């Protein structure tokens, strides 16, 4: 059964944003995140291992809802779908990606950073967006300001979100989840210290205020 954007963004209050160099390590990371209580992850396409990691997790650990991030063009979108992605996040929004999303069965969650981009999303029935880079485009104050003219738009702020400020974002009515990399430390992955990652996930979820 395919998910919609709303379902994806409600799986967990924290969506790990993951950059991987090795597909096998990504599988171990997925299990560590799941053991900690998070069953969704965004694997960015910033490295060559990204698509392989998505495919491996999708096939070998289906309990994890895995999606692709840094989807910047149609080729990225199609590659993500073919690798088993359950959703795609983009850092931005383009008409070509919007049109491609209409031909695909997995949800497209575009990145927006201003009112005009949100209006473009809304015109195309896209009501769930990533605010990116959240901390640089106004953060919590920006999201509060956007709530007035865009009451039907929901956000996943990503970029500069961390353990210390996540609850400031999650307290907002138009925020369903936050994206962050602190729960999936590349350093700990390289060290194969997956137990520590599980611990960080548990501690982070315990601090979520809602």
Task: List the topology elements.
Elements: H1 5-9, E1 14-18, H2 23-36, E2 40-44, H3 49-60, E3 65-69, H4 74-82, E4 88-89, H5 95-103, E5 108-109, E6 111-112, H6 115-123, E7 128-131, H7 139-147, E8 154-155, H8 166-170, E9 178-180, H9 186-190, H10 194-206
Parallel strand pairs: 1-2, 1-9, 2-3, 4-5, 6-7, 7-8
Helix pairs in contact: 2-3, 2-10
Detailed description of the structure:
α7 links the parallel β7 and β8. The protein has 10 helices and 9 strands. The protein is globular and about 45 Å long. The two termini are 28 Å apart. α2 crosses α3 and α2 packs parallel to α10. The protein has one domain: TIM Barrel. With 210 residues, the protein is of the alpha/beta class. Homotrimer. Pathway: Carbohydrate acid metabolism; 2-dehydro-3-deoxy-D-gluconate degradation; D-glyceraldehyde 3-phosphate and pyruvate from 2-dehydro-3-deoxy-D-gluconate: step 2/2. GO terms for molecular function: 2-dehydro-3-deoxy-phosphogluconate aldolase activity. It catalyses: 2-dehydro-3-deoxy-6-phospho-D-gluconate = D-glyceraldehyde 3-phosphate + pyruvate.
């Amino acid at each position: 059964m395919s998910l919609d954007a709303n379902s994806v963004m409600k799986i967990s209050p924290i969506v790990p944003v993951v950059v991987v160099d090795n597909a096998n390590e990504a599988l171990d990371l997925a299990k560590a995140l799941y053991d900690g209580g998070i069953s969704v992850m965004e694997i960015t396409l910033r490295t060559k291992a990204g698509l392989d990691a998505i495919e491996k997790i999708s096939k070998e650990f289906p309990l994890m809802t895995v999606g692709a991030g840094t989807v910047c063009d149609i080729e990225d979108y199609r590659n993500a779908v073919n690798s088993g992605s359950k959703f795609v996040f983009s850092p931005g929004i383009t008409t070509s990606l919007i049109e491609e999303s209409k031909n695909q069965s997995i949800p497209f969650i575009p990145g927006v950073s201003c009112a005009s981009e949100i209006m473009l999303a809304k015109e195309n029935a896209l009501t769930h967006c990533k605010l990116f880079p959240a901390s640089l485009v106004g953060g919590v104050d920006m999201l509060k300001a956007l709530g007035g003219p865009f009451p039907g738009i929901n956000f996943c702020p990503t970029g500069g979100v961390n353990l210390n400020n996540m609850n400031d974002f999650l307290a907002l009515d138009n925020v369903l989840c936050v994206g962050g990399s602190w729960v999936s430390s590349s350093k700990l992955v390289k060290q194969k210290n997956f137990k520590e990652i599980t611990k960080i996930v548990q501690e982070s979820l315990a601090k979520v205020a809602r």
